[in-house]
Amino acid sequence: MKKAYIGIDKKLARWGWIFITPSLLFFSLFSFYPILNAAYTSFFRKNILSLKPPTFTGLKNYIYLLKSPDFWNSIRATFVFTLGTFIPLVVFSLLLAVMILLVNKKSQKYLQLAYYAPAVLSSVVAAVIWLSIFNPRGLGNQWLNFFMNTPGIDHQWLANSFMVQFSTILVYFWKYIGYFVVIFIAGLSAIPGSLYEAARIDGADNWQSFWRITFPLLQPTVVLVSVMSMLQCLKTFSTQYLFVQSGSPQAPINVITLNIYNTGIRDHQIGRSSAMSIILFLIMLFFTWFQFKASKADSVSY
Amino acid sequence: MKKTLIVLLSLLALGLPVFATGVQEETGPVTITFWTHEDPNRTALEDRYISEFEASHPDVTINRVTNSSSKMPELLLTAFAANEGPHIFNTQIEDGYAYIANGRVAPVNPEAVGFQSTEALTESYVDGVLNAVSEDGQVYGLPLELTNWAPYLNKRIFRDAGLDPEKDIPKTWEDMVAVSQRMVLREGEIITRRGFDFRYPYYLVSMVPMVEQLGGQLVSDDGKTAIVGDQAWLKFLQFMADWGPNGLNLGSPTYQNARKLFNADNNDMGMAMSGLYQAGRIRADNPEFYDSGDWMVIPYPQFKDAVKEVASAYYGHFYMVNGQKSEREQKIAWEFIAYMLSHSEEYLTEVGLVQPTKQLMASETYANIPYADVFAADMAKGNIVYYAENSAKIQELIKEAVEGVMLSGIAPEKALASLKVKAQEVLDQE
């Protein structure tokens, strides 16, 4: 029998499949399966502690959620947090990355390390650090009162509805800015220096170079950072959870993930919380698709 | 091929009985996992009980795991949801009741805990104590502690504010406001010393009784209506709004836990709400303060125009046994629980926990515990905390209402309207 000829492309493709199979399996087991399982569970009334079989309720969980003021408040809280965090994160991490690249090499390393340091902390540790800062007798009031010359004012970082939302945004911004700065620095370093030299010869100043060369060529990185930071913000949990545990009012910061947790764990209603997580998943999917579509990230070439 | 397969299957069928051993009682080493909440004083005791029990039961290993009491409910729930719960656990009855309602825990084996029958076991406890863990004539848990709260008072801070701890102790909530206003110290709006502050996350235990004093109820007697008595609830919510940072600014849930600050005696907490066990914790955290005699316990205050005398609700931490474990493991688990609970006097003297057996409550040991009389008198005026499958959710709704009026400037009427609707919805879903 004659052996079928296999081209080099196909051989390479086979090796490719072999290499990615473990990660595909891992991804399927820990990401796809839970999503599918949650989608399935969302059609049932299921008590997490009950040994009885769950009752099929069709779309009732979704209908309940869409009529629930609490759920819509969670949507509001999630979007306030996401918009309030991810836009400043993208803007300031880009600015900081550009500024870091303007200083000398030694300072660059120090600044990168300083900005990146909070990113290595777990979200829980970050929230605990900031809880002590935001305590009425903590550094938050002391610093703000010193700079604003308002001795003795309690700015109610954890109590006032507006301030508690701002506080969660501040914690997240502090924690993740360094991470995105590093990504932007990698993106900026990939832009060929010859483009800037040519622009300088043509008489362009730094401002023009940034808007005409850096920013357009950095578009794929901007999209990457936007998508990553937006997804991070949409699934924020631990900061809000710990703040509520420490006495903050829940409603202003009752983001969807916190609502999922409370519904599933505290209220034992795992079917309803699964429906919530599927809605969150669809929201995340839509905005990721929308950002890629709107930005045309793959149209950049040097 | 087919013939060979038939022959092989026949041989296998004939050979199977050779390996059959029949029903045998399980034997051999067994490890019992025991999850409980942190308490340094209790850990020392229970570690000793474990060593003693293991010495008398050579096949048994007890693996005691501690977690903070606030983390226990979710850790237990996730473990049980995965059918991997521990053999023994304890949690407050508000959280523990769901395990009974969902058939997750095993009934007490009376013989394993040293009684002839369930009736004899029930008879050994103070009347009604086991009601919260009883269903259909079976008992599903034994109390590690039955606890109510009362205010602990720092006499030195009291005197520092020009008050006399013998004459001026706050008997009413109105007195509590007046006394706290005398004791509070602030730098501008920021409180540096609180007179008294509430124990915030535990609204069912410490705040529902305030509503009951005014004639309100959490749930009607027939169990069908939530949040009964609008005027009582409104007065209570207004009281909390006045207490908070936008009112008289006497305290807030965002300040550090009052009960823990109290032990330090750092001139920043005049009074804090806690149970009898707090005395043991003061002794462990700050022996100098404990020995100084500069602290005391006063009865739970009443509103001046209270229509009913009600003190703090009492809650139980009940030891329960996972019903999904084998019968042998369940039996050993109950034997071990019984061994621990046979030291109720030591639990009381060393940890301040009351295991409400008739024998202990009538003992001299109990009578001689400082301030045990205050707690006992208050307990007689209180009810057991609201426990049901939905109690955590109901507590969350009260939290939302109280913190809404205290922190977010929501009007009591609006907070009450929202609380009524949401609590009723939860009740109707049961």
Describe the structure in your own words:
The complex is a heterodimer of chains A (about 300) and B (about 425). Chain A has about 300 residues and is mainly α. Helix content of chain A is about 75%, strand content about 0%. Chain A has one domain: Orthogonal Bundle (MetI-like fold), CATH 1.10.3720. Chain A is flat, with a radius of gyration of 24 Å. By secondary structure, chain B is of the alpha+beta class. Chain B has two domains: about 30-145 and about 315-380, D-Maltodextrin-Binding Protein, domain 2, CATH 3.40.190; about 150-315 and about 390-430, D-Maltodextrin-Binding Protein, domain 2, CATH 3.40.190.10. Chain B has helices spanning about 1-20, 40-55, 70-80, 95-100, 120-125, 155-160, 175-185, 205, 210-215, 230-245, 260-265, 275-285, 285-290, 325-340, 345-350, 360, 365-370, 370-380, 390-405, 410-430, and strands at about 30-35, 60-65, 90, 135, 140, 140-145, 150-155, 185, 190-195, 215-220, 225-230, 270-275, 295, 315-320. In chain B, the strands form four sheets. A five-stranded mixed beta sheet of chain B has the order 2-1-3-14-6. In chain B, strands 8-9-12-7-13 form a five-stranded mixed beta sheet. In chain B, strands 4-5 form a two-stranded antiparallel sheet. In chain B, strand 4 and strand 5 (about 140) form a beta hairpin. In chain B, helix 12 packs across helix 15. Mean pLDDT of chain B is about 90; it is low at about 15-25. The chains are: A mainly alpha (about 300), B alpha+beta (about 425). Chain A: It is found in: Cell membrane. Chain A: Pfam families: BPD_transp_1. Chain A: Keywords: Cell membrane, Membrane, Transmembrane, Transmembrane helix, Transport.
Give the topology, please.
The complex is a heterodimer of chains A (302) and B (430).
Chain A: H1 8-41, E1 44-45, E2 55-56, H2 60-67, H3 69-102, H4 105-116, H5 123-134, H6 139-148, H7 161-189, H8 193-201, H9 206-217, H10 219-234, H11 238-245, H12 256-266, H13 270-295
Antiparallel strand pairs in A: 1-2
Helix pairs in contact in A: 1-13, 3-7, 3-10, 4-7, 5-7, 5-11, 7-10, 10-13, 12-13
Chain B: H1 2-19, E1 30-37, H2 40-56, E2 60-67, H3 72-81, E3 88-92, H4 93-101, H5 118-123, E4 134-135, E5 138-139, E6 142-147, E7 150-154, H6 155-160, H7 173-183, E8 185-187, E9 190-197, H8 203-206, H9 208-213, E10 217-219, E11 226-228, H10 230-243, H11 258-264, E12 269-274, H12 277-285, H13 287-292, E13 295-297, E14 315-321, H14 327-341, H15 344-351, H16 358-361, H17 364-368, H18 372-381, H19 391-407, H20 412-429
Parallel strand pairs in B: 1-2, 1-3, 9-12
Antiparallel strand pairs in B: 3-14, 4-5, 6-14, 7-12, 7-13, 8-9, 10-11
Organism (chain A): Oceanispirochaeta crateris
Subcellular location (chain A): Cell membrane
Family (chain A): Belongs to the binding-protein-dependent transport system permease family.
